[in-house]
Amino acid sequence: MASSLQEQLLKAGLVSDQQARQSKSSKRKQKRRGDEVDSQAQRRAAERAAAEKQARDRELNRQRDEEAKRKAQVVALWQMIRDNRVPRERGDIAYNFTDGSALKRLYVNAEQQQGIVGGRLAIVRQDAFYELVPAEIAQRVAAIDASLVLVLNSPSTEEAADDDYADYKVPDDLMW
């Protein structure tokens, strides 16, 4: 009784040899077609996974490139500020300014104070320190990262204010 159905049908004479072989052949072909369909589905799934991986890799590379550009800009700003800062020996005039919500104080000499007020000098933040730089450099820094420029007075408003009060003499001994 361990024989297959096909063998049993052959012994009973219900099926001829040729029909049994055709049946076997067609089963093999169907199995092969099924394997081909499975392999095509697997191939499509593998191609889809490869395309998704390429898209993910492109996105990661783009993010890495943006991060590298940002770091390069930070280094360039740091070098620009360091190379163009105005050397300041400790002055006796306290210049007050705000950094966010904090009030900060920078000691400058009279010439530097006039430069800041007149718009020729600006105060920029570099890491945890404050530096005096020429206004042109501060404008270039502001074009890249405006949050680093803390004080940049416009020279046109100061000149207009000077012209309005040019007829009035201010005493030399007046302290504000």
General description of the model:
- It is a single chain.
- The protein has about 180 residues and is α+β, with helices and mostly antiparallel strands.
- The protein has five helices and five strands, in the order ααββαββαβα.
- The chain has helices at about 5-10, 15-85, 110-120, 135-145, 155-165; strands spanning about 95-100, 100-110, 120-125, 130-135, 150.
- It has a three-stranded antiparallel beta sheet. Strands 1-2 form a two-stranded antiparallel ribbon.
- Helix 2 runs antiparallel to helix 4.
- The radius of gyration is 41 Å and the shape is rod-shaped.
- About 10% of the residues are buried.
Give a topology summary.
Layout (H helix, E strand, L loop, with lengths): L4 H8 L4 H68 L8 E7 L2 E7 L1 H9 L2 E6 L2 E6 H10 L4 E3 L3 H10 L12
Antiparallel strand pairs: 1-2, 3-4, 3-5
Helix pairs in contact: 2-4
- How much of the sequence is in beta strands? 15-25%
State the order of secondary-structure elements, H for helix, E for strand: HHEEHEEHEH
- Gyration radius over CA: 41 Å
Tell the overall outline.
rod-shaped
Q: What is the number of strand segments?
A: 5
Overall mean confidence score, pLDDT: 84
Terminus-to-terminus distance: 118 Å
In short:
60% of the residues lie in helices and 16% in strands. With 176 residues, it is α+β, with helices and mostly antiparallel strands.
Keywords:
single chain; alpha+beta; two-stranded antiparallel ribbon; 5 helices
